[in-house]
Specification:
nucleic acid binding, RNA helicase activity, Superfamily II DNA and RNA helicase, DEAD/DEAH_box_helicase_dom, 7-stranded parallel beta sheet, single chain, 369 residues, 2 domains, globular
Length: 369
């Protein structure tokens, strides 16, 4: 068993960067994935957000890239702009002292500035499928020398309808390359996509849910659709959370709740895919800096957002799957800290609540307001 990053073959300059960030011990997904990636093998890795999977693929990629070659050598495809930004920030922090060209390509940002940057030496591209195809159609990006491709949040990519886009992109990637697929869930659709483009992949599965849930107090508020908003506000006033995420089922419900909470004087902001990218980035920066107390979000907008300091998660709308529930509440209680989550359930949600309780093997405590 590898106990530190040096044993995993991470070079001295990157070790120094990790030390500065206070990252000294590799997580299970890093311990299991990095040695496989280093050998050049294909990999399917099942791991939730917050388990350290970004570094699990970035570290070996950084070790592999040859900066003396002026070409794109690694490509990371991710479903959302937020996740692309987050991975880019992580990569830029890692590349301290290394002359490595990184391009983040996603919609909502001026494409001409990305085209201009592509004329310089770029070694690593982090992109969303739509914007990457845009570049490929314009012939502004050359993927013919890519030796490693990463599909991050592969399950979400398929859920959001990017299957055809992935297939189009793969036509521009050399046949001889390494492919890494990271996914929170490992259903048949993910396996089918992965195995179509992979050669004898190794499979790593990190079960982190039980560990994550140990630090989180879970409660349920039984309510009705008519009273739900008032009940949420009472809970928010009682808890006065330091930083919280409130999950809604749709963009329209995010908009409605955001308007209502603002009227009641709560310090909140909303995030979903219809909000202009530059504004979303400003909101996320403010939230990370704890200037915003409540972030109201859809599942898709919040996917991959890993913000330290979130103390509370409120499920205003019940999630559609058990995995989604675990994924949502895992936003708090990170790094051994305690978290609190509250799920608002009206009578029509009882079946889903039972499914959640059976899966996590816990009868969630009912909260009286």
């Amino acid at each position: 068993m590898f106990m530190n990053f040096k044993e995993l073959g991470i070079s001295e300059n990157i070790l120094n960067v990790l030390n500065k960030k206070g990252i000294k011990t590799p997580t299970p997904v890093q311990i299991e994935s990095i040695p496989i990636i280093t050998t050049g093998s294909d990999l399917i890795s099942q791991a939730q957000t917050g388990t350290g999977k970004t570094l699990a693929f970035l570290l070996p990629i950084f070790e592999k890239i040859d900066t003396s070659k002026n070409c794109i050598q690694s490509l990371i495809i991710t479903p959302t702009r937020e996740l692309a930004i987050q991975i880019t920030q992580e990569a830029e922090r890692l590349q301290e002292g290394k002359d490595l060209g990184i391009l983040s390509a996603y919609g909502g940002k001026d494409i001409s500035s990305q085209i201009k940057k592509l004329k310089k030496d770029i070694h690593l591209v982090i992109a969303t499928p739509g914007r990457l195809i845009d570049h490929l159609m314009r012939k502004s990006i050359d993927l013919s020398k890519v030796s490693t491709i990463v599909l991050d949040e592969a399950d979400e990519m398929l859920f959001m309808g990017f299957k055809n886009d992935i297939e189009s992109i793969m036509k521009f990637i050399p046949k001889k390359r390494q492919m890494l697929c990271f996914s929170a869930t490992m259903d048949s659709a993910v396996k089918k996509l992965a195995y179509r483009y992979m050669k004898d992949p190794s499979v790593v599965s990190i079960k982190s849910e039980e560990v994550t849930l140990e630090n989180i107090i879970q409660e349920v508020v039984e309510t009705t659709d008519r009273n739900k908003q008032d009940d949420l506000c009472k809970v928010l006033e009682e808890d006065n959370a330091f930083m919280a995420i409130i999950f809604c089922r749709t963009k329209a419900r995010v908009d409605k709740l955001d308007e209502n909470l603002h009227q009641r004087g709560f310090n909140c902001a909303k995030i979903h895919s219809d909000i202009q990218q530059s504004k979303r980035e400003r909101i996320m920066k403010s939230f990370r800096n704890a200037e915003i107390q409540y972030l109201i979000a859809t599942d898709v907008a919040a996917r991959g957002i890993d913000v330290t300091g979130v103390t509370h998660v409120y499920n205003y709308d019940i999630p559609e799957t058990v995995e989604s529930y675990i994924h949502r509440i895992g936003r708090c209680g990170r790094s051994g800290e305690n978290g609190y989550t509250c799920l608002f359930v009206d009578p029509k949600n009882e079946k889903m609540l039972t499914e959640i309780e059976n899966n996590i093997k816990l009868t969630i405590k009912r909260r009286t307001i």
